[in-house]
């Protein structure tokens, strides 16, 4: 299979649709991004990297970071983590607070905002916010094997200044005793985590362990157990696209996690880790063109986990 | 891989746990079932059948029938079906009506009761209830290659007499014009569909086309397109276990559909179709022992779709 | 105070606004009513009757009937009635089902549809539907001292044929065991009760006992105790206008009950019983012009219960 | 009518029930209050003051302060206030956030926490928090004609430190642009307002204008227009006891506002202003004994607004 040709073909076919969707504007800093960009990269389990389009342009990975932070937190606290966050699709928007009131401050899963905030609280145990952010950054850099990856402070500040909804979620969970640290500290970690800037190439590299039974096939070391890798993939499949998770599974058929920056990381177990990016979002807040590109790729490679 | 030995081992290991969970009692006829039964069957894509325990005892497949009815309806109306039912996990119980009020009578997916009722309405187009039920029965018999499969009329009557919640759902959707036929007719089809009695052997045989790219590998004919088979599997993964779908994906990692009769049908794409049955249900209404058995099987075979 | 002059003045001032609002169209029979009609009648506790506009034209009183049926039911079962229906404003639409799911089939109050259906179930105890309807009709006729009052069968049939939402509510409560009779029987009573046709004159006369400490000051007999009259008034104030009850209290300041036929019955305790009718409804489903007229009347008479 | 004898009788009859209910413990400072206290005071429109029990003991008036702050805000911004807060009962708990998500950040009424926070935001326009608190304190002192009334700083600090739920509500509304000032500033005003300490005597005096057509009958000056006084009373009746407002209207029949400190202020229009206090709360968060005492008083005086 000529993956490079596949990616080039997808970029060419979608050239006329660049700019589709609506760039997220509730985070001021994100609203400034050029909507016509589109990149895609694939890192296979045997270590090959393929890329096309704007695959070398850093973008704000936003909620995709939740996969890495969950991985980090599971390494620290293990399965006890699930006492404080669920594993079910939410059936509501990424920033909904309704479910929290009905379910006593326990978020439905670690990939909606509330759940990711609880994960930050867990990672903070015994650390100062700066230390926790530092550890997270080092973890992602090691996964991507690239020390140039940085956090975009302007984005982090932009969210700190305007992220009222996240302050609401955090304070709400605090009132149910499902946060143990200072709300400002927890959100400090959360906003910085979301502000991680990565390219499609870096992102597809960083997710490779999830396609390769939990081990990094290039570096040759284990990141998580095979079982844990499967479980993280399962969570991405059922909960990775907020209230569009069912549709993404239906159309693409790969575990994936999207971010409002327009990025999506998708995993083809045993095959490859994929990153795609285009800033315009569809109605449920996932990259419009990115979703289309992944559907094309999954269909043409036969990588869907729901086929033979 | 010695599948027969695997099944025998699972049956032996779980012998001491028979009777776990709580038998559904809201349908009087189901409450009478002996809770200590447990059966499992696997039909592989190359046509081999393995079975252990009470795999030849017929049970009420209940909601598992929704997979077959959806398949039948997609064959009739195609993708237009999705104008009247969604494809997202519900985040609520199987018989919740809250979501319907918030989303104007459009059920979240075809595997919750409301969604399955809409599917029955679609299948009724141009038919009388008896004809629609007849067509459905013939379809399942042909999938299972077994003309002895029947509908348990006592169960159907039991549900007709006491299924107030389903009458509520149907009338509610009718008020939003999302049912086109008489409520009694639609529910007549629905209750008879749910009352289908099958053994684990028959059920695993009937699901085989979903494991085999949409074609029946034994009969050698196409049931649905490869794409449609993938999509039905995706729906089972995200929505097949009501508000326990995320957990089932997390622990088992296979597309599956459960019924309150205690049965679960699971699909390992490219590998096999699996049926398991034990009447006791867990907290979210899925077979307690059946779920455990599937987790054991998926783990020991490596069939999880989230691994390599 | 010259009440007749007041009423004439209101009719004259509102002449140019006749036809405001939107006639209820979900009950086919109601959609045919001439929207330009407007009537008002006042019966004082010393037995005087004042009327203006179309006060002698019968209209479908719809939900206003819930006040009379509640009164009848309280007479039969007493305060035990409150075990099956609450006394709180619902904060939702008149036909919402969401609250019922969250609160286990117990309706918030007797003036939303679900609550009124439970009241019908209570009144049915020991009776056939026809007998219960007959008893209700006799009760209202005696309150209004007018044997010519009838039920509009065409309206009742229209609702029986299209009232899917009410069938949903009734079946839903039945599933929670909060209905004891056959759903069709209960709704038969409910639809006939709502189809009562009365004029403003008759309606203001029928409500007089609520303005007069529970006794009929003209007939000179007791209908309910003084305490019960106060409590029914309190319920009308907090729950009588669905999700517009707060606004009605704010603007008019009188206990009242509206119906989708465009009628409103309002009570000025110690002063008078008032009926107003105009078919066009405002956004929350209460008579648009009727509400305005009552605000004018309450303001000019000083009858608001919130003033001195 | 010998009001003093009535109050003495009520205090005597309830002596054996002191301590009923559950003292609010979510605000640490309030949890320390002696639960066996009970006081009642009545100030009539002709200027007489009657008191019994612990009527001279200051307590934290908490949410009762919302009535005074609303009055102050209406004086500043007039009816435009209603663009940012509704006038309907909520049908939910005092601190629910669900409604806010469904209704885009507009609280249902000014007497639930969210609504009162918006009112504080309005009062802050052009002021610093300290100035706004100062103005509020002067306003209440002038209403009560008592300059010794103070804010209990320990209570205010206790709430500032632990009021996560209110921080959640405020940030949530800020995300919908329904707060214009800094969340900390708005809540600073809110927490200080709630921490007002008053005795039953002072409180019944301060509410007198609402019983007397908006004017202070003792001081002889107008506080609000007669119409506005009626409307504030209407809001207290429909929304003054959270999700127990319907029940309070049913049993007591007077406009009233409760606070979690165990106080209730009730208004008998044209008759008197009443304050009662006992720390133990009933299930919906209103003073258990206070409610009983008011029901006795309203019944024995005939002051219910729903009677003649």
From TrEMBL, chains A, B, C, D:
Alphabetical keyword list: Acetylation, Hydrolase
An MF annotation (GO) of this entry: glutaminase activity
Keyword Protease among record annotations: no
Pfam families: Glutaminase
SUPFAM superfamilies tied to this protein: beta-lactamase/transpeptidase-like (SSF56601)
Enzyme class, UniProt record, top EC level: hydrolase
Domain of life: Bacteria
UniProt KW Hydrolase keyword: yes
Coiled coil spans: none
E.C. no: 3.5.1.2
Binding site for substrate: 63, 113, 159, 166, 190, 242, 260
Reaction equation(s) it catalyzes: L-glutamine + H2O = L-glutamate + NH4(+)
Family: Belongs to the glutaminase family.
Subunit relationships: Homotetramer.
The name this protein goes by in its record: Glutaminase
Organism: Ciceribacter thiooxidans
């Amino acid at each position: 299979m000529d993956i490079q040709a596949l990616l080039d073909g997808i970029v060419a076919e979608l050239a006329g649709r660049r700019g589709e969707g609506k760039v997220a504007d509730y985070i001021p800093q994100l609203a400034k991004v050029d909507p016509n960009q589109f990149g895609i990269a694939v890192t296979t389990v045997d270590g090959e990297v393929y890329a096309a389009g704007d695959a070398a342009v850093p973008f704000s990975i936003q909620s995709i970071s939740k996969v890495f932070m969950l991985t980090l937190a599971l390494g620290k606290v293990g399965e006890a983590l699930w006492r404080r966050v669920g594993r079910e699709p939410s059936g509501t928007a990424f920033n909904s607070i309704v479910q929290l009131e009905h379910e006593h401050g326990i978020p439905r899963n670690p990939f909606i905002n509330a759940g990711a905030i609880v994960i930050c609280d867990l990672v903070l145990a015994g650390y100062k916010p700066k230390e926790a952010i530092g550890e997270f950054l080092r973890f992602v850099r090691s996964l991507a094997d690239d020390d140039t990856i940085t956090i975009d402070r302007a984005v982090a500040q932009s969210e700190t200044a305007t992220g009222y909804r996240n302050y609401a979620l955090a304070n709400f969970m605090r009132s149910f005793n499902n946060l143990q640290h200072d709300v400002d500290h927890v959100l400090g970690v959360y906003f910085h985590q979301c502000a991680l800037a990565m390219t499609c190439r870096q992102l597809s590299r960083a997710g490779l362990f999830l396609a390769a039974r939990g081990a990094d096939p290039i570096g040759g070391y284990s990141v998580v157990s095979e079982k844990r890798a499967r479980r993280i993939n399962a969570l991405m499949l059922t909960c990775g696209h907020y209230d569009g998770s069912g549709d993404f599974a239906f159309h693409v058929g790969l575990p994936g996690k999207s971010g409002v920056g327009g990025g999506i990381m998708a995993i083809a177990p045993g095959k490859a880790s994929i990153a795609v990016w285009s800033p315009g979002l569809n109605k449920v807040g996932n990259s419009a063109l990115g979703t289309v590109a992944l559907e094309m790729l999954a269909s043409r490679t036969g990588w869907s986990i729901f086929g033979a």
